[in-house]
Amino acid sequence: MKMKNVWAVYWSATGSTKKIVTYLARALSKQLGCPYASAEFTLPRQREADLIFAPQDLVLFGTPVYAGRVPNVLLPYLREKLRGNGALAVPVVLYGNRNFDDGLIELRDLLEQDGFRTVAGGAFIGEHSFSRTLAAGRPDGRDFLAADQFVQRIASKISRLGQAPGKPVLVAGKTPVRPYYTPRDRERRPVDIRKVQPKTSEQCTHCGLCASVCPMGSIDPNNIRILIGICIKCCACVKKCPVGAKYFEDPAFLYHKTELEEEFSRRAEPSLFV
């Protein structure tokens, strides 16, 4: 098949998903000899308009994995605002070194339902949103080498296609998808951090950056110490604050963070499907 455009489309609160999705899309645009374009839907205003594609588009579509699934706050956008119209798609998920569970197969199925035809899928690793040590610095050089090989395989497959595939690409995961991963303490009791909110230290200079980068629009720009919506623990406000004024102090959150850092310190590798 001959592609006319290669798109990078992504939700990326702290930038890791953006890194790998834009890298893949740019490399594929060069490999296939067609223009590169991008669309981000991280911020609320970016999720207002429909995103419509054409049959000769190739879309690298990326989201992070939260608790082993596509973040549930993205489901309305993914179900209502996307129109694939037969475009080829490569679902890409990023996870913080624990596991991508059913995140990739869930994203694949959502794209198929939106009218895309999936030809490949990948699960890459990025620095965990809660941590600065778990999968720190990833995606890194080894991940980008794997991405290069992934690009070659995708380009080769597309060049051999006479028409869009009739079946979704086979990827790891289960359908129906399993419930979201539930962290537990050492007595196997659930650890619930859903209502936990970030704190603001006296170091805050009131620059307003945290409010501008919150993907849920939940930080009051007039008083950044107040939340006016839900917190999904993406940690964009924490990791992007120029003076380190945003932080979490909830004991359950810190316990879960420490458990993740200790239990999943091994290097996970990308899982790629073509």
Describe this structure in words.
28% of the residues lie in helices and 16% in strands. The chain is built from seven helices and eleven strands. Strands 1, 2, 4, 6, 7, 8 and 11 form a seven-stranded mixed beta sheet that branches. Strand 1, helix 1 (16-32) and strand 2 (36-40) form a beta-alpha-beta unit.
Q: How are the secondary structure elements laid out?
A:
Layout: E1 5-10, H1 16-32, E2 36-40, E3 51-52, E4 57-64, H2 75-80, E5 82-83, E6 88-95, H3 103-113, E7 117-118, E8 121-125, H4 141-160, E9 199-200, H5 209-213, H6 236-240, E10 246-247, H7 251-263, E11 271-273
Parallel strand pairs: 1-2, 1-4, 3-5, 4-6, 6-7, 6-8
Antiparallel strand pairs: 8-11, 9-10
- String of helices and strands: EHEEEHEEHEEHEHHEHE
Q: Enter the CATH topology name of the largest domain.
A: Rossmann fold
Q: Mean pLDDT score, rounded?
A: 96
Which structural category fits the helices and strands? alpha/beta
Q: Percentage of helical residues? A: 25-40%
According to CATH, the homologous superfamily of the largest domain is Flavodoxin domain
Parts with pLDDT < 50 across at least 5 consecutive residues: none
How many structural domains can be distinguished in the coordinates? 2
> So what's the overall shape?
globular
Work out the helix count. Answer: 7
- The CATH architecture of the largest domain can be given as 3-Layer(aba) Sandwich
Instruction: Determine and state the CATH class of the largest domain.
Output: Alpha Beta
Strand content: 15-25%
Distance between the termini: 16 Å
